[in-house]
Amino acid sequence: MPELHEQSTDILLASLKQGDLSSRALTTACLARIEQLNPKLNAFNRVDADAALRKADSIDAKRAAGEAIGMLQGLPVGIKDNMCQSGVATTCGSHMLNNYRPPYDAHVVERLDAEDGVIVGKLNMDEFAMGSSTETSASGLTRNPWNTEHSPGGSSGGSAAAVAAGMVPLALGSDTGGSIRQPASFCGVVGMKPTYGRVSRYGLVAFASSLDQIGPLARDVHGAALLLQAIAGHDKRDTTCVESGVDDYSGLHGQSLDGLRIGIVDEHYGEGLDNEVEAAVRSGIARLESAGATVKSVNLPHAKYSVAAYYLIAPSEASSNLARYDGIHYGHRTENFDAKNDGLLDLYCRSRGEGFGAEVKRRIMLGTYALSAGYYDAYYLKALKVRRRIREDFDKAFADVDVIAGPVAPTPAFRIGEKKNDPLAMYLSDIYTISANLAGIPGISVPCGLTSAGLPIGLQMQAPAFSETSLLQAAAMAETPRDTIGTCPMS
Ligand code: GLN
Predict the structure, then answer these.
(1) Which residues, 6+ apart, have CB-to-CB distance to 282 below 8 Å?
(2) Could you say which of 55, 80, 193, 419 is catalytic?
(3) d(CA 267, ligand 1 centre) in Å
(4) What is the pLDDT of residues 238-281, one digit of tens each?
(5) Domain 4-256 CATH assignment equals 3.40.250.10
(6) How many A from CA of 338 to the centre of ligand 1?
(7) Which of 66, 64, 61, 101 is nearest to 85 (CA)?
(8) Residue 358 CB: number of other CB atoms within 10 A?
(9) pLDDT one-digit tens code per residue, 363-415
């Protein structure tokens, strides 16, 4: 009998519903696991055990009284440290927000609470979600539970590591260019970026507003579907959040793939793709074929420009979003300021100089340059035109196939420090994930194998906008049972 931290979402939910397991017992087990492993992994920035146990007790009391319980049934959830929780420090992994305690809850936090999720704490991330390795956080780096010399990926590395190590069954991340899917792939868990507009961004600290999307990470596809179900849907406080209804994502077990058309992209299998990753991805696709799907080639001719377009558009939006952190309106204020001799500009410059780390400064400079008079047309506007082409490529491809399958990242989890001082190499690790953000479509990473060194490999699937149901259904069929990829050495 697997221990609680290895149990599937199905079994945990059934045990909670039947009253065989209390939310307090499950939450206590998660808190013990966090206490044991967090000193090694640094996945959580902060844990609020008292609040979690209070919430768990209130759910258990409702159950005992025969009252209705929300769909999360008392499952513990961790949230990335860029989602606002009233009165709880929300740092975005930055000194800039060291003392920030939001006076309100993000929409997703309200939803978790309403659906009886137990929020246990805030998860580590690259500073302001800019990164692919969770090495740039002001709270220190996070380690990959499969091999602690390796990065968990990023920027939602804390979320992926916490789920992989069994600290929580469910976690929320955010994905602007791959930050849910790439760490999910590196840590052998399921991670999904929903369609842009599927989940409200109200209360998510903005990085690049036209690309940011909140999504679930979980041990299995059912867990991801359930968590998505809990957070998806209209919210008038985010005007980009659509009004269309939400399907029943969590009820898609064991459906056959007969007739599902899967596209494979020749451009995915070029230079830079690790051999073991390619082999695992190809065998994942073969499994889909044997489950009844048909496979055909499609082309995404502009995908090769996606990294270049993204690293103009995302920094441009970031430079504008992060302008508010000036030490006066928001964020860290320098102490090194003498009102008699220094001017306002000194206060801004020192506050921002001290508050932001090197990668964030690099993005602000890139974005400010791309938006500046004289360069706007050549860089920012050009990148928007490329973005349109990338979206059109997907539209054409999805006329022939229902789902596109391929790698999540060109390599398995790289070593800590390996790419830290080479931004270009770091940016190139986002090559397969970024296009879904530029096109606004959903994408999911499911574990599909292990390297000879025992590191997980993810299979990415993408679908047309608002086709989360067919995407999750395909993912459920592609999912490799945990006993096939083995369990994370820490679980
Ligand atoms: N790695 C990408 C970046 O650094 C994506 C980050 C994200 O999705 N938040 O911009």
Answers:
(1) none
(2) 80
(3) 22
(4) 999 998 888 888 776 666 778 899 999 988 898 889 999 999 99
(5) no
(6) 37
(7) 101
(8) 12
(9) 999 999 999 999 999 999 999 999 999 999 999 999 999 999 999 999 999 99
